[in-house]
Amino acid sequence: MSAATLKRGLQALREEIDAPVASFFSSCMHCGLCAEACLFYTETGNPEYTPIHKLEPMRRLWQQEFTLLGRLQSLLGLSKPVTDAELEAWQPLVYDSCSLCGRCSMVCPVGNDVAYMIRKMREGMSASGNAPEGIMGATTRAVKIGSPMGVRFPAVQAQARHVKNDTGIDIPVDVEGAEYLMLMSSMEIINFPEYMESVARIFKQAGKTWTISSTAFEATNSGIQLGNSDIAKELVQRVVDAAEKLKVKTVISPECGHAYTAIRWEGPNLIGKPFSFEVKHIVEVLDEFRTAGLLKTEGLEEARLTFHDPCQLVRRGGVIEPPRNLLKMVSQNFVEMEDNGKMNWCCGAGGGVSANEDAAELRLTAFKRKKVQLESLHVDTLVTACANCRMQLEEGLEVNQMDMPVVGLTEMLAEHLVETPDDEASDDKIKIPAGD
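-> structure tokens emitted (436 positions)
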């Protein structure tokens, strides 16, 4: 990255003011409905967290340079230019109090996509040097090391050896011609190693070939979270190069919402051409296996459980029914939250918020919305399909002294697989704990 300056930041903002952004600013009625859809506003009552307000510097730049009235006001000294100090002051609003969940966009009466605009606002913030140190550090590690959390491939190999020892299943690496290329997030490698074992067991039963790439195993794209399209493109290109080299048919995004958005929806636009392969979330693939009759499960969870919808997967990705189809295979007591599916409430940690140390108190305050939802259901277990959500949910439950296990959907499905005679026995099978 070249030196960040206010001049570069403002130029980046100008370049991001495309036709949709201009039309959104023009049509905004300042009705405030987006505020009631944002958990950072609802849980704090702070009007600064109104979604459209987070875009004020970009809106003023648009008005001053792209509208006749704004130009006249600037000439007469009635409109102040955007300053570096102002962008610095806006950093907590653009990064700490926005998870890019898109719920505000769902309720806008004129159809403005506020999350789309925040994503573009971050391009200017990054270019001007006003992005949080946490996300900048993660992005630097992603470029230099290959992972935002500093995970190197030997760590993946170590997990693969554990899977081999526990199940007898080899984890395929750099296998040319496999049907699927499996991506993982650093959180799954470090915090949820059971994910790799679950995938291995499921794919073995389904009889599908898959592989991990030694050069592109990381799914998380911190360039998207930071707001730097050049870096985001570089990280996407790594995956594309690996997928094309290995000649796979499908690239699988892991249980990570933003990784799914980055490679599935933004990826082709970033590299400027369509992919030669399909991209699907692991939940979509598992539901396809279910439909084809490739998954055989036994036993049903008796514990009362619910599902937290990851925003990027469900609301912005449209993957609503597949996780519910899979849950019906393993649960007899599944209940929905009052707001579920496309109108779910965010966990509060997406969009890079979890990487910002300064946002820790705010994101746990935002978790109060999820706390109320869970308390009203009286559930024993919480299931989700995003490692980042899972980390936030576990922390939020701990802080609020709520004794409730949080389980990954892939992990839960694997626990209920019918064991075949040649399956290796494991002394430490994955256990799904039930709440009190």
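The CA atoms of residues 240 and 275 lie 8 Å apart.
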